[in-house]
Amino acid sequence: MPAKKVPIYAGFDLGGTQLKYGAIDAEGRLVLKGKTPSPGSMKELLAALEKIWDRFKAEGPGPVESCGFGFAGFFSLKDQKVLSSPNYPCLNGFDLVPALQKFIDAPFRIDNDANMAAYGEYMYGAGRETQSLVLLTVGTGIGSGIILDGALWQGKCGFAGELGHITVNPEGERCKCGNRGCLETEVSATKIVKNYLALAGKREPVTSRDVFLRARKGDQAALESFARCAYYLGIGLGIVINFLNPEKILIGGGVVSAGKYLLGPAVEEARRRSHRVSFACCRIEKATMGNDAGLIGAAAWARAGIPGRT
Ligand SMILES: [Zn+2]
Predict the structure, then answer these.
(1) For residues 167 and 170, what is the distance between their CA atoms, to the nearest angstrom?
(2) Long-range contact pairs involving 172-178 (C-beta distance under 8 Å, separation at least 24)
(3) What's the rounded Cα separation, in Å, for the pair 60 and 23?
(4) pLDDT by residue (tens digit) across 82-101?
(5) 186 C-alpha vs ligand 1 centroid, how far in Å?
């Protein structure tokens, strides 16, 4: 008897620094997984995607039924293009669909990377068995996605869930998006370092982890740096709670590990700033899928259906 062929669903998660990819089976189990630094040009990106696609076909336990892509940036549902990608500019306006069709010989769909991560957490992570959630991923910037009534909320044109670019500090610094004082400019691994160097009056190469370790030792500038980020994160969380009354808000990303200095005070700030009854019924938790959320979400999103196909 030949081995039973298990259909699989492929997912790609392209961010500013890494291209992560994997495939799941019908139950959502990861059957293949890998990552590589994000290629520097469109030509290199397409070559990398083709190579990975060939690997899925060669090494997967069965045929690739469909494929999902989560790309960093503002992906237009109407144009099927990333209109603007501050962290991966070579995607800007590029006609992705025909380029991918040259080698992706299965139905595929594209969306924003943070939306795919939210969908992944909703399907298989800390968002399972919820009907509404907001995922905020805090890293070098902030990614976010929204699930409402059990469905990904994409918005009219595909641009929903850009919580990283809500204004939390009208006098804050300029954001890559052109606005000032966005949640993403006030709360990020980058901002933790910037705050620290400004407060300490230092000019040395430090990472957000270094600042975390110094905070643990009681360094006042490090503690104050986290407190400032927590304050603005709390404002953002308060807005989300009052606006959507979600069942859960999930926080992901590397800086979540600094819970005591960042997430804890941010939740307290959100409590002060949101309506008591809405805050009381919203659970704010850590996301559980880490770096796999985006690629698994993209694969599950493709498995859920391809627009235009029955
Ligand atoms: Zn912005």
Answers:
(1) 6
(2) 176/86, 176/87, 177/86
(3) 8
(4) 999 888 899 999 999 999 99
(5) 10
Residue 259 burial by CB count (10 A; 0-12/13-18/19+): exposed, middle or buried?
A: middle
* Phi and psi torsions of 227, nearest 5°: -60, -40
Q: Which of 239, 292, 308, 304 is nearest to 32 (CA)?
A: 292
| Ligand 1 center–CA 107 separation, angstroms | 33
Q: What is the pLDDT at residue 276?
A: 97
Distance CA 191, CA 172 (A): 11
Centroid of ligand 1 to alpha carbon of 87 (angstroms): 12
66 and 108 Cβ atoms separated by less than 8 Å: yes
What are φ and ψ of residue 275, in 5° steps?
-70, 135
Closest CA to 245 of 288, 276, 285, 286: 276
- pTM comes to 0.94
Of residues 125, 71, 69, the one with CA closest to residue 306:
69
Burial of 95 (0-12, 13-18, 19+ CB in 10 A): exposed
- Retrieve residue 108's tokens: 């595929």
Distance between Cα 160 and ligand 1 center (Å): 14
pLDDT for residue 291: 92
Distance 176 CA to ligand 1 centre (A): 6
Whole-number Å distance between alpha carbons of 233 and 71: 24
In the chain, alpha helices (H): 42-59, 96-101, 113-124, 183-186, 189-200, 208-216, 220-244, 263-273, 276-280, 293-304
